[in-house]
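Usage

Read records sequentially. Each one opens with the input sequence:
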Amino acid sequence: MRAIDHPYFDAPPLALAHRGGACDTAGLARENTLAAFEAAAAAGYRYLETDVHLTADGVLIAFHDDELDRVTDGRGRIAQLSWDQVSRARIDGTEPVPTLRELLRALPQARVNIDLKADGTPEATLWALRELRATDRVCIGSFSSARLRRFRRLARRDGVATSAGPLGVAALRLLPAAVSRWLHTPGLAYQVPVWHRLLGMRIEVVTPGFVRAAHAIGRQVHVWTINDAAQMRRLLDLGVDGIVTDRLDLLAQVLADRGHPLDTRR
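and closes with the structure output:
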């Protein structure tokens, strides 16, 4: 299957709101809040990016860190806290931590990119997607190859889109093009930074050859996390299919300047 044949993916360029748009123009953090996700949707962002963790009593939350400390007024490791404790924390002192189910219910038209951040999240995420009939509007990724393999095994009959794992990215980037064009990866997108450490080496991932190789096997390339307008333009010129950003205003303007304005109708 090519990426474009799956209902999650649109024709490029895709604009993805990182953690719902992790900062506004004043740099104020509102990451992974329903307020941020709803504001991104109102600004025309159909694609949202988030992460998932499990509380000690099994509640699946949309949250990046494994601790509350950095962005909330709460403290402690999420895996060691009950949902009751997590639900009392406030992001930036004002916004509650949402569950994944709350996010999917609040924005039923949104497509959500989900990063599996903790053990147990493959099972819990799939249960939530099945319950809400949202299997066709998410893409699942993870830095953990084991979690990604686990999710794919569990969801093999559900048709859920996934992104390539770390080994798939390394193979596409490091093997010769004559070999990489015949690679089979179940991931329909390569979601990568411009630079990354692969197999112990710091290398430039998003090169013309990498983009061509991904397109040759029907995959999209989404690049994170890009908050500079000049770099956005360079990557789009390179042919990438999507950009993940904290700066929703900048990416919206870059796309509008190139004839791809976001649709703010809801």
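Summary fields computed downstream for this record:
- The chain is about 30% helix and 20% strand.
- The longest strand covers residues 47-54.
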